[in-house]
Design brief:
Length: about 325
């Protein structure tokens, strides 16, 4: 049995997994729409609202795939509802079908210009309503698949395929962005350059496949130690770069020392169970009067890394503050 009151209504049915929100101030119209859609088995979740305000609240709190909304309602009509939806970026891809008792073209054009996906005229034909709903669901499904494909492509373009960390290109873009933000807000940030010691010997002794496993394992250890807003990238070969926003040089040194100890204690299994890996780490941070660009910052961190290697490896060295 459908709900008789004007509150948000939620009812589950088995099939397709789509969710619809029906907004109309007349309960009999909502019931007619629900009966029509239920008979077609298009949706597994149904929500009702008696006006635009209730509908907008539901839209903010629930994952809705499509909306059917009456144009003429008390309080917030369909046009005001469209404007509210368009004010939120996360809601703008949800198709909205407007219900109207007006046949005039001006009303329809107004709704379409304000973001409606389609119109259904009351009294509506159940067959026409179903056809228009199916078309909008098909379009939304294609759009969702396209967005997911684009998301995957962006991820692939930013990711080092072996380690799952960011790649060098993305790291450089992030570094530029963080450098600009640091200059605007006068906040510090640190750059760590990490290089696995004598890694060529790992490949020569155990083979490149086992070497890749070492890189993957160390990458996971590094990633596990970072804050959500830190960035880790494979800079090249066995070298990694870490960007630590809001981090002073002294704080960065503590992070680097912790990472160095974690890497040195890493235990491996299988053919490389007897392998011990160490890392040399160089660190630089801004503000520093020697740093006027990201290239300057990378150069200082690299110099510190070479210093760590020259002083015996398995150690942390920092660019001296100016």
């Amino acid at each position: 049995m459908y709900a008789e009151d004007n509150s948000n209504y939620h009812r589950k049915f088995p099939p397709m997994g789509y969710t619809i929100l029906i907004i109309d101030d007349t309960s009999s119209v909502r019931r007619q729409i629900l009966n029509t859609l239920h008979s077609a088995g298009l949706f597994s979740n149904y929500f009702e609202a008696a006006n635009g305000i209730e509908g907008f609240k539901t839209l903010l709190n629930e994952k809705i795939d499509i909306v059917i909304c009456d144009v003429e309602m008390p309080g917030m009509d369909g046009f005001k509802f469209l404007r509210m939806v368009n004010s939120r970026n996360e809601l703008q891809d949800i198709p909205i079908l407007l219900l109207t008792s007006h046949e005039d073209m001006a009303t329809k054009i107004r709704g379409l210009e304000q973001g409606a996906s389609d119109y259904v005229t009351k009294p509506f034909s159940p067959e026409e309503l179903l056809a228009r709903v199916k078309i909008q669901l098909k379009i939304k499904t294609l759009q969702d698949h396209l967005k997911e494909s684009n998301r995957q492509l962006r991820k692939l373009s930013q990711t080092d395929m072996l380690t799952g960390l960011y790649n060098r290109r993305h790291m450089m873009a992030t570094l530029e962005s963080e450098f600009d933000r640091s200059k605007r807000t006068s906040t510090p940030f640190a750059l760590l350059m990490i290089d696995l010691d004598h890694f060529k010997q790992v490949n020569d002794t155990y083979g490149h496949q086992q070497g890749d496993e070492v890189l993957q394992s160390v990458s996971q250890e590094i990633q596990a130690q970072l804050r959500q807003y830190d960035s880790a990238a494979r800079f090249g070969g066995e070298e990694f770069a870490l960007i630590l926003p809001g981090t002073t040089l002294d704080e960065g040194i503590m992070v680097a020392e912790r990472l160095r100890q974690i890497v040195s204690k890493r235990q491996f299994t299988g053919p490389i169970s007897d392998l011990k890996i160490t890392a040399s780490i160089g660190i630089a941070a801004v503000p520093n009067i020697k740093v006027n660009s990201t290239e300057d910052l990378i150069r200082l961190a690299d110099d510190a890394l070479y210093m760590a290697k020259g002083n015996g490896r398995n150690r942390v060295e920092s660019a001296l503050p100016a």
